[in-house]
Amino acid sequence: MKTLRVGFISAALLCLTGASVFAQDSTFQMVSMWHGIPEATVSAVGLASGASGLDEVPGSLHLITTKELKRFSYTDPLRTLRTVAGVNITEEDGFGLRPNIGLRGSGTERSSRITIMEDGVLIAPAPYTASSAYYFPSIARMSSVEILKGSSQIAFGPQTASGAINLISTQIPDVETASFSMSHGSFKNRYVHMYVGNSVTSGKGTFGYLIEFLEIGSDGFKTLDNEDPTGFIKSDRLAKLKWSSPVSASVQQSLQLKLADVTETSHETYLGLSEADFAITPNRRYAASAQDVMNTEQTQTVLTHTVAPSKRLEIKTDIYRTTFHRNWYKLDRAVDSTGTTMDLGEILNSPDDFSEGYSYLTGSSTIGLAGLDVQANNRNYFAQGIQSRLIYTFGKAEVKNRIIFGSRFHRDLVDRFQWRDRYSMDNGTMELVTPGIHGTAGNRVESASALANYLRATLHFGDFTLTPGLRHENISFERYDYGSSDLERLGNGDYRVNNVSVLLPGVGLNYQISSALDVFTGVHRGFIPPGSKPQTEPELSINSELGVRFSHRYVSAQMVIFSNNYSNLLGADLNASGGTGSGDLFNGGSAMANGLEFELAVDPFTDGPCDHISMPVRIAYTYTDATFTNAFDSDFGAWGDVEVGDALPYLAPHQLSLVTSFEHEKIAIDISGRFTSAMRTVAGQGEILLAESTDESLIFDSGIRYEVSNHLNVTLGVTNLLDRAYAVSRRPYGLRPNMPRALRIGVSVNI
């Protein structure tokens, strides 16, 4: 073993000695991975399209490339994003079906505080009216992912407080292409992905198409007491058609139609476990969650026109509409023999004090006059709009200044028509006793109309690049609450309206010290829409960053200090956060989120005598300190009565990730690790109580890829290699586990 180690070190030294300039196509190159994304790397649907260098991007930008996405072939977006500095996540179901994502200490509840897009178009079911809705695009069919932080946010609202995520779908290929991938693994985890596409050029232009299908599923890693299913199945279908004008045309333009449909059935629940039960069997599910299931269907239609009237001017316009229906049928409450409602969270926090309720949940008692109420959270959403972006380039050939003007008119809506069914429990089996009347547990329609405009410039002054910008949001919210007395919606409901108009300035500055080193800074005003409640004011913040980045030969590094000062933090009354589920936003106090991001990428084997070997290493570290800066009383369970200095819940102070690979000719070995410190589950300060925290966690994933031929690859992957069980969340009701160790074997064919 010692001889082998010495030989390896000698070989490494030889390669280092012979290494020359840092390879420009390295997967872990900082310039392409983080900020100055080359134009060839970014598609026309990327948020950074139009940027040609490091100094063109106002603020921090991280690109997860196609190669990185394929490295582990994750279907869980949280595993994909966890290696990016500044990204905060909270696990929920173990599969990433309900992602809770935040950026730079913004909070993670239902990813409601970040702007999520697919191909530059808002993809949330109702981003203004209900930004916490339960939909996230399938990461497994994406070609790359952009994560934006910093002053660039003013261009990508409505949520501009902390950051934006743009998922870039599979693009129409230039030549005839067919791809097929599949895998099978533990818990009957399965994955099938295929697409076919082509582009044909004639005298009338270039015509292209893409047809894509994705299906992922599992029998689930949790075990119900009565052995009912706990898994899921999710299917994506997508088609694209595109025409581009001939090269000889005086005006270059293109027109693309995108059609997509996504369905999901998942046997997921909000019901977790008590402390004692989690310690014995963390993957158990109580009998009272046997009826819990979510059914969803999402459709998307996008028509995109791009035209370049001149070499200096480009205009891109999207007309889009998405619809989303979901019915999450899940346990809502327990009712004892006296008719008193028992809170599920209180039962699991103190099962000895609520022994009757606990016996209902576990199925150890037969319920007579009492019952379990299962609520049908039946909702319909739509979002539609038109957006246009104009890019004007001016200046000398070697120095290109840009002005970008964007405008979007958007309308979205959420329609709640919900009910509760009463179940009994007989020897661990739930039986329907009293069907609920539809509409009696939520009967309201809430909508928003918004006009957003922004102007941003990129101006070069020698080694300095200035990126000032200004955004304006004008929003009108409406809500009709018909209640249980007007189930036919004849117009007798309560009506409320809330109008919001806000101006959001921002500016970024980059100083190119040398070809290898630059310093950047930025500040912008952040904004979160307040919803339809007139008494609720919008969340405003002042967000700033200061960073330095370095890239030379085989080493790249970046360090950023950020500070987000919230003057009026918004909270959301969500079941997922332990609230009542009304969906209303409410004003909290002021808060401050400060932190540091550090990223380092090294790949010494990029050139020289060992250029057939690649061993990239990437390290990312995030420190976050998010605290309330004033005292206030709150009925929100995760906040409670807040004191000055209380830390915000569900934000890990320390996150550290490492990704490394060893690639040689036809074989590659990948290892990914992430450490996450314990998180508070309730606002507070000082020592964290065990009953108010998640576990500190260390998770490793690994994979092996073997190239059988130019068209055939075989993969073997293991998630949670050490099979560690952690309590990753306590909300809304009880402890929730991470996914245990899972083995996966797959094959991919590309023609």
**What is the strand content?**
over 45%
Structural class: mainly beta
CA-CA gap between termini = 42 Å
Task: Please report the first level of CATH classification, the CATH class.
Answer: Mainly Beta
Poorly predicted residue ranges: 1-43, 50-55
- The pLDDT mean sits at 88
Major beta sheet summary: 22 strands, antiparallel, barrel
Q: Rg from C-alpha positions? A: 26 Å
The overall number of domains is 1
**How many helical elements?**
7
CATH superfamily: TonB-dependent receptor, beta-barrel domain
Features:
single chain, 751 residues, mainly beta, Maltoporin, Chain A, 22-stranded antiparallel barrel, 7 helices, 39 strands, 7% helix
Describe this protein's structure.
By secondary structure, the protein is mostly beta strands. It has a single domain, classed as Maltoporin, Chain A, CATH 2.40.170.20. The strands form 6 sheets. It has a 22-stranded antiparallel β-barrel. A hairpin with a 2-residue loop joins strand 4 (115-118) and strand 5 (121-122). Mean pLDDT is 88; it is low at 1-43 and 50-55.
